[in-house]
TrEMBL record:
<protein>
    <recommendedName>
        <fullName>NAD dependent epimerase/dehydratase</fullName>
    </recommendedName>
</protein>
<feature type="transmembrane region" description="Helical">
    <location>
        <begin position="311"/>
        <end position="332"/>
    </location>
</feature>
<keyword id="KW-0812">Transmembrane</keyword>
<dbReference type="Pfam" id="PF17784">
    <property type="entry name" value="Sulfotransfer_4"/>
</dbReference>
<feature type="transmembrane region" description="Helical">
    <location>
        <begin position="270"/>
        <end position="291"/>
    </location>
</feature>
<keyword id="KW-0472">Membrane</keyword>
<keyword id="KW-1133">Transmembrane helix</keyword>
<dbReference type="InterPro" id="IPR040632">
    <property type="entry name" value="Sulfotransfer_4"/>
</dbReference>
<dbReference type="InterPro" id="IPR027417">
    <property type="entry name" value="P-loop_NTPase"/>
</dbReference>
Length: 340
């Protein structure tokens, strides 16, 4: 992926690598219902191999939801924020039961990653016939990957996150699931500094909570470590072992590449907004010039000039937003490379 793609469009290789970033299904999950049975709840914490587990489940014929799917349907964020408000912020108007989760997950038979892993006990209770797969990883190996992929993204000031949410619709729907749901809710952290302090303890507590919830139903739980191959998973799910290797997704590289594309898309939307504002400004200036040439009154001229001034101010604001976005993108690249 190159900077040229920012200005001239993403090439076919980038689109093929991240197809979910180039489609918006625009589905309102609040109107959805279950259409396939829920079979597998993958409740391992993010960065434990959730993408590999998702790929494995789909090879076994189990359509599976993963956090990255929110990018292909940003409106998913709306219903997950409802769940977050109910669990972590005392909203009693939402009941986290099968009827609710059927709206968010009714189109799939499995789930992995966040947001579902924020609701382990609730999902286990909602789907008593579903098997539970808890992918675990050594905390010391897990933490650097998790910190790089998720915590660093919240190092930017809160005002900047709110600004992005204000000017970009997709960001406004997806980002609260991370900072309000995961960071503040699931990990109980006010900011990224506290998130780092609490991460390993909450990771261990999360795994213990899943084990405790299923203490009286051990037959429903498989603790799985990547590298164990197909055997344990297929035995647990009653599936035949596929005639192919167990998938191994390089989640760190895949996630970093995905975020680069996403940030460039946000920048493109800023630039498009700037161009639209410039177009409106040019039309306003042309109209004002035509009005003057046709001898219309000074009052109208003053009015048109005022309108043009407002439009030019908006263009300046949009240009400023674009500059902030470019600076933030550059800072993020340096941060991910360990140079900031």
């Amino acid at each position: 992926m190159s900077l040229a793609e920012f200005f001239f469009g993403f090439n076919s290789a980038t689109r093929a690598e991240h197809p979910h970033l180039f489609v918006n299904h625009d589905i309102d999950r609040s109107q959805c219902r279950r259409v396939v049975p829920m079979e597998v709840l993958g409740l391992g914490m993010g960065r434990t191999g959730t993408a590999s587990m998702r790929a494995a489940l789909e090879i076994l014929g189990i359509p599976t939801y993963h956090g990255a799917d929110m990018h292909s349907n940003p409106r998913d964020g709306d219903i997950w924020v409802e769940a977050i408000n109910a669990k972590y912020y005392g909203d009693t108007s939402v009941k986290l039961d099968a009827d609710f989760f059927d709206k968010a997950l009714g189109h799939v038979s499995g789930c992995t990653d966040y947001p579902p892993n924020m609701f382990g006990p609730e999902l286990i209770a909602s789907y008593p016939a579903a098997k539970v797969v808890l992918v675990t990883r050594d905390p010391e190996a897990w933490y650097p990957s998790f910190e790089r992929a998720l915590i660093r993204g919240q190092d930017s000031p809160a005002w900047f996150r709110r600004f992005l949410a204000l000017v970009d619709d997709q960001t406004s729907r997806v980002q609260p699931v991370i900072w309000r749901g995961m960071m503040q809710g699931q990990f109980g952290a006010r900011d990224s500094v506290e998130w780092r302090r609490r991460a390993k303890a909450v990771y261990a507590a999360h795994n213990d909570e899943i084990r405790e919830t299923l203490r009286d139903q051990p037959e429903r739980l498989l603790e799985y470590r990547l590298g164990s191959g197909w055997g344990p998973l297929c035995d647990f799910l009653g599936k035949e072992v596929p005639d192919r290797d167990f998938p191994r997704v390089n989640e760190t590289a895949q996630h970093d590449a995905m975020i680069r594309v996403f940030v460039m898309q946000v920048g493109q939307r800023f630039l498009l907004g700037l161009l639209k504002a410039a177009g409106v400004g040019l039309v306003a200036v042309a109209a004002w010039r035509w009005w003057r040439l046709n001898g219309h009154g000074a009052g109208v001229e003053v009015f048109v000039m005022q309108v043009g001034r407002v439009l030019l101010d908006n263009m300046a604001n949009t240009a400023g937003a674009m500059a902030v976005a470019v600076i933030a993108w550059r800072w993020w690249r340096l941060k991910m490379d360990g140079r900031a």
